[in-house]
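Hey everyone, long-time lurker, first post.

I ran two proteins through the pipeline my lab uses and got sequence/structure pairs for each. Pasting them in order. The first:
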Amino acid sequence: MGKVFNVTGDCRPDIHYMVDISGKLRQIKAMVDAGQYFTINRARQYGKTTTLRALEKALSGEYYVASLDFQYQMSNAKFRSEHAFSAAFARAFLSAMEEAGDNLPDKMNTELNLLRDRVAECREETDLVELFRHLSAVCGGADKPVVLMIDEVDNAANNQIFLDFLAQLRGYYLRRDRLPAFQSVILAGVYDVKNMKRKIRPEEEHMTNSPWNIAADFDVVMSFSCQEIGGMLAEYEQDWHTGMDAAEMAGLLDDYTSGYPYLVSRLCKLIDEKVAGGPDFPDKSAAWTRSGFLEAVRLLLSEKNTLFESLIGKLKDYPELQKVIYNTLFGGVKIVYNPDDSAVDMASMFGFVKNEGGILAIANRIFEIRLYNYFLTASEAQDSEIFMAAANDKPQFIRNGHLDMDLVMKKFVQHFDSIYGDQKQEFDEEEGRRRFLLYLRPIINGVGNYYIESQTRNARRMDVVVDYLGERFVIELKIWRGDAYNKRGEEQLADYLDYFHLTKGYMLSYNFNQKKEIGVKRIPLGNRVLVEAVV
């Protein structure tokens, strides 16, 4: 059986197409060699488990690796008391050491057996102090350093006992010049320890001290680079000979996902297993093209999966997070990336945003489109007329499989004037963008995609890029602020059309002047044409 793209569980290079993470493993191993304790905090489905499994294998020659997983080895009941936690942890640790090999030194085996006997006796006095006394003795009896790795530490996020456990790790770390201790401790999860503490004691959110303040910074880039994605595609191409342009496909995957591991693998899996063999893409050669890629994007954005469910769920759970994301998307607000701001810190921790030159930005284009769709869905009831008008007009806009964007602009002007023409109060760019996107969505939904070009995202201007069955359209949205400002906008849009190698662009201006001329006109710009709509 050949390899496949994997999006469930950890990836294995013998059965899955995956990027080469050997460079990342060397960086992490260097931290282990230096005796550092650290946490791998990354968003959901970011490759943490895959990395830990590969790291365990890479370390096994020089270290004894005790690899634990709190998700399946430590149920909530194990945190009901210090004794229950200590006994459960000891059993998980013993199981991990059994997997480490049969040729353990006698002194180490003796200490492991003493720990095994204590657990078997179920002594109530087996607390964290006793547990760590045994763990220290095991490390002291080993003929090579011992590394402790714990995956899914989020399972312990609501438990004070886990913080007490971290305090013991800290104590032995600080005394390891006198007492045997783990060479390195690696915790993996979404939440960092500071947020765990905040979650345990919500009334003390101002507290930032943590027993895990010994942790070294983990700066290893876990996202996939364009080059790494290209290497994975090259391996796939060796097996299937599709004739794809691997560099172009890697660039598209990077553009839309910013290297988010799950999204990269999911899009590749969709192209390979869902797009290929479909009515428009009869084989893999047809699927591994730009059009096939965009079809995979459409499929991804229309599906329910655990990553998207988590994304939307967090917005509902944390109103301050939702506000930050909404302002970034619709308001064009340039929010300074400040990790001390709780909402920004949370958005970063969950993988929603990234630091782009000191400014907050949505983490990737896929998230951005999904979030736009989420907020627009919430707006449908509020502005049902404009949404329903677009849904009713949809058949008019598709001619021989092509989207007639000129007609879309013309009809939007007509409907907008009919629905909102008597509105006396001016609105800002945010409201104008929301209303146009609400009109656009039912027209392209299910067939095309749209995104906001990050280079033009600001409070006064925003370019919407629409991909529809291989065709691309660029629409600039803005508030009318005079002829001079409008002229500059035309010139900027012309430059942007050159960037996309397009000869036609669109501009939608919201004009609140009493003598405005509502309608659509075509403006020649050299060898390009600008279709300008004014409402």
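...and the second, right after it:
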Amino acid sequence: MTCKSFFTASLILSSVAFANAEAKWTVNYVEHTVDTTFHATVGPGTTLTHIDITGPDGVNHAFYTEIDLNNQWVEMRSAKAKNDMRAVETVPDIAARFDAPGQRYFNGVNADFFNTGYPYNSLGVCISDGQLANRQTTGPSADIDDYYLCFDSKGVPQFSRHVTVASKGTLILPDTRTYPCSTNEERTTNALVIYSPQWQFIKNGTTYPAGHTGTNEWGSEVAVRLVNGERTFWGRTADLEVLTDAEKNIGNMKIPADGFVLSGHGNANTIVAGLKKGDKIKLYFDFKADNTSFDAREVIGGFPYLLYGGTIQPTLSYPEHLANREPRTAVGYNNDKSRMILLVVDGRKAGGSIGATQQEMAWFMKNLGCTYAMNFDGGGSSTMYVDRLGIRNIPSTSSLDKDRKEGEPRVVVNALFAVSTAPDDNQVAAIEIVDKHLDLTTGQSYTPTVYAYNRYGTLIDKDFKDYTCTVSPLIASAKGNTITGADGRYSGHLTVTYGDATHTIPVYLNGGGEFVSASVDVITADSDPDAPAVYYNMQGIRIDNPAPGALYIEKHGSRTQKIQR
């Protein structure tokens, strides 16, 4: 990288968002100060921001991503730990498990509450990319009622107070005959069952490996896959293709990672045994969100609502910790469902953060522009993960954690992710200085940290160095990739450039003062040491008759200097 300290031919104006990092929020009807300490693009249509929220009781360190749901290269997905109904895993490990070309799990947070002992079920229904990862563990009369974030087949979000997962669906055969079908349960007499990869068979206290049907030899099984762009058969009739000829009298068939196994016994055995590779079938399971049919592609639980229709919801009496200051995780979206917010707030003094109550989280989400928001599991589970940047918060510990240290992620049952569906591409198309403004003093050195992105907005390099930077010599001198503050009090810009990609941030020298810009080509000294003086204003424009008392750049023979006439 090379850095040059000169005026450049064209004025580059940059966004000054976050140039003033301090803002004011109302939280519980009390004014709080909000300082932005980090802000950067981290994926297609997605930014990550760190803020310190300071009120009368102390400071909360908060971390949130804002996701543009209209961006064609990003979609939201739930994901089950180890892709297994009965397993736990850290959020980064879940991301790594599902990450693949064309589906990069680049940002995620922990989600549903779960049983902390085996079999580690989520307390609510979980549907991951159209596959039933877990049925509901609790019901409407249980201590923790069911609250859900659902996404339909087009990726549009909807919060729902209750969801209903049909225990039986309908299989439509190539000859239009139908047969009742269940999913992810033990196959019984005359039963037809479709198994997803998350299924794990348990019988007589023995747990069988996930990813197999666990059936005996008294039946037939075929592998099937959704086709024609279908992503779910929950709440819609989906097209499937038979991938294999029927395996008869074998059982325990391996379930394809991107498909299902259809398994039949007795009367259903005849149905499955008659299928052959290439056959087309249809499948429908009813799914209701708040008693209305819903084509569910992603479903993930939480508890309780924080905001509904822009109204802050009352604190519930159970669990009792909702009224306490704790680490917390929340999800929400704005009124037109174009923006989604994932928020994590640290607590238990991790990093000095005091933690938030349910009410404070509601106010935080409202200040972030949400109209609807829901609480996810919190405490030591709260995790904000970003690909290439790692875990951004400091996960706390509690009595539940024996060997885990503060800052290490806790294993959880599932997570909600922003997923990039863009092609993999390592060509730099955009760059961004991580700092969004710079306060520089005389003699202080500064080296820009620059992120590089491809044309889809994917972060591909968090320490990009192959750029040039431009800054007024009145503000700083440059050597290599470092600039050093000059004398005086000025305001201006620092610009980094790589090919057609540029990014500019404001610079305030010694607290700021008269604005100077880099707006003409390098003003070089004349080769003739006796050449007459020529004057330029702070915008780099030549001035034939400089006015007394004004500030100018004087080029006088072999010297170039700042003067005041």
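Reply from user beta_strand_b:
Welcome! Quick read of the second one: The CA atoms of residues 36 and 51 lie 4 Å apart. The helical segments are 91-98, 267-273, 358-367.
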